[in-house]
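Bumping my old thread because nobody answered last time. Still need a sequence for this structure:
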């Protein structure tokens, strides 16, 4: 399957059986791309978070991304983007570097946007990425998000603050996209 072909993925809540995989990914810096934080988290951090809320609360949710065969290949998350609105910010990560560049990122973003607009009373979804992260920028655009602007020094990666580009989609944008894809 080429990167241009549509990938089928599924999202599911984190379960206890996922903790070894999540802990290993959280400690393995070699699995992270150049635009991801190198900060490591302890196994206790992940176990405590899972025990508290299963990585799912009104403020934030982490979901496991599964490929066509049901194998966990990464994670997706959403969280409150602004305290004063219902907007959600999204993020995604493919754990295995060999799976990157194959269309999974675009499938994750589209599926997460559909999940949020279908199940949450929100008007807007956004994502923020480093300006040089062209892969994530293309993923956001393929998911129907529009470039909205630049935030100076908003992301802390590898010891320095870098700018972030913001992409967003509103519920009416998403509904129009759904109507054109369904036709």
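Sorry it took so long. Here it is:
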């Amino acid at each position: 399957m080429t990167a241009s072909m549509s990938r089928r993925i599924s999202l599911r809540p984190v379960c206890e059986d996922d903790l070894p995989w999540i802990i290993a990914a959280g400690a393995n810096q070699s699995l992270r791309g150049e635009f991801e934080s190198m900060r490591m988290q302890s196994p206790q951090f992940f176990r405590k978070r899972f025990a508290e809320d299963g990585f799912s609360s009104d403020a934030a949710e982490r979901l496991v991304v599964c490929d066509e065969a049901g194998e966990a290949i990464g994670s997706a998350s959403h969280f409150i983007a602004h305290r004063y609105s219902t907007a959600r910010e999204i993020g995604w990560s493919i754990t295995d570097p060999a799976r990157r560049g194959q269309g999974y990122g675009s499938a994750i973003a589209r599926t997460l946007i559909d999940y949020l607009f279908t199940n949450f009373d929100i008007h807007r979804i956004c994502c923020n990425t480093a300006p040089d992260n062209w892969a994530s920028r293309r993923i956001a655009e393929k998911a129907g998000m529009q470039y909205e602007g630049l935030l100076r020094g908003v992301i802390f990666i590898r010891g320095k603050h870098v700018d972030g580009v913001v992409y967003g989609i509103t519920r009416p944008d998403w509904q129009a996209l759904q109507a054109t894809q369904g036709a």
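DSSP finds five helices and seven strands in the chain. Let me know if any region looks off to you.
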